[in-house]
Specification:
This protein has about 375 residues and is of the alpha/beta class. About 50% of the residues lie in helices and about 10% in strands. The protein is built from 13 helices and eight strands. Strands 1-2-3-4-5-6-7-8 form an eight-stranded parallel β-barrel, surrounded by five helices.
């Protein structure tokens, strides 16, 4: 059972100005003092308050650009002093944490390869003990919600209360256009369990290409997520890492301005009354659906007893195929998708076979 998280509301961190999206932007990697300063100035001029840059880069192949290391922290310090932005970077070990604390880095995040590793997460949590800096945790590379929650729990137990998450999608072997599979349902599940946890999306690593940034960012906003972490570089095509997915500060502003932000909720009285009435209808329909399903299961049990008494096998695939075909046809006629109807009926069938088996093995009779 997951523990509850004791967190400080993001409004009290003093990092972001609302309204949504709270935005964190900056290059994939800090490459040189000039590149960091030019990008930071471009972002600060466009109203971005939180700057990111990778100092230690987890790369797939050795020999790729692995980050500039500690000297880059001095550049981040300069960004902070000259632009007033808050600065953050990725940490993947206790040593990284100590270096960041030494240079006054305002916030750190765990990368997707780190949050997937409980040993590292514990080591980092211990290094953060008794500090007050906010920590954001990217989802693990694999779609494992409990592992993600476990990483949050380790930090929270170590006293990190300014805690948030970044959804950057999951590694996949599926053939999809994006670099990582969005797996939004996992984000929604986490959001539902911890509604107060500040929730960012990282459309850059999810999409892997500039051309997907708008659609992914819009989707994150439509799902009610709080913020975005977007990679931005003063000269994206020359970037030493993730060149294809970075945006100039000017293009980032265009992107942010084209997002349609719908209110998470509305205090408007007419809206409230309208939505309450619609929700009441849904509740009623759900009740009816459940009663209907229960009646259907009763009949299934009767069929189970009948088959048993006549020594007939439970599973009769021909009959089921006919049922599904008929259902798909009816679904089409009432404007439901065939796929949806098929999925629902497969679940019903599975349960029906289970209750009939129960009867065969001497379980409760209809
Ligand atoms: C990054 O933010 O630069 C990064 C390496 O991201 P991820 O951990 O999501 O791959
Ligand atoms: Mn990157």
């Amino acid at each position: 059972m997951a523990m509850t998280l004791d967190i400080v509301p993001v409004g009290e961190w003093g990092f972001f100005t609302l309204p949504r999206p709270m935005t964190i932007a900056g290059p994939c990697s800090a490459e040189s003092e000039e590149q960091v300063m030019e990008t930071a100035r471009g972002l600060a001029e466009r109203g971005i308050h939180v700057f990111r840059a990778g100092i230690w880069k987890p790369r797939t192949h050795p020999g790729s650009f692995e980050g500039v290391g500690v000297p880059g922290l001095k550049w981040l310090k300069r960004v902070k002093e000259e632009t007033g932005m808050k600065v953050c970077t990725e940490v993947a070990s206790d040593r990284h944490v100590y270096e960041c604390l030494k240079y006054g880095i305002d916030m750190v995040w765990m990368g997707a390869r780190t949050s997937a590793n409980p040993f590292l997460m514990q080591q980092i949590a211990d290094a953060l003990y008794d500090t007050d800096i906010p920590v954001l945790v990217k989802n693990p590379v694999n779609p494992d919600l409990d592992l993600w929650i476990g990483a949050l729990e380790r930090l929270n137990r170590a006293g990190v209360r300014k805690l948030g998450v970044i959804h950057r999608g999951f590694s996949t072997t599926e053939n999809i256009p994006y670099r990582n599979s969005p797996g939004w349902q996992i984000a929604i599940e986490l959001r539902t369990r911890y509604p107060d946890l500040p929730f960012f999306a990282d459309p850059s690593h999810m999409g892997g290409d500039r051309k997907y940034l708008l659609e992914l960012s819009q989707r994150a906003m439509d799902l009610g997520l709080d913020g975005l972490m977007v990679e931005s570089h003063c000269n994206p095509s020359c970037a030493l890492s993730d060149a294809k997915q970075q945006l100039t500060p000017a293009d980032l502003l265009t992107l942010l301005e084209s997002l349609q932000i719908r209110a998470k909720d509305s205090g408007d009285r007419d809206y409230r009354e309208g939505i309450d009435a619609l929700r009441a209808q849904i509740d009623l329909i759900d009740e009816n659906l459940l009663n209907t399903l229960a009646s259907r299961m009763d009949v299934s049990r009767k069929i189970g007893s009948y088959k048993r008494d006549h020594n007939v096998a439970i599973l009769q695939t021909n009959r089921w195929e006919q049922v599904v075909e008929g259902i798909k046809e009816k679904a089409r006629r009432c404007g439901l998708s065939e796929k949806f109807a098929e999925d629902v009926y497969n679940a019903i069938h599975e349960e029906s076979v289970r209750v009939q088996n129960e009867i065969l093995s001497g379980g409760p009779e209809a």
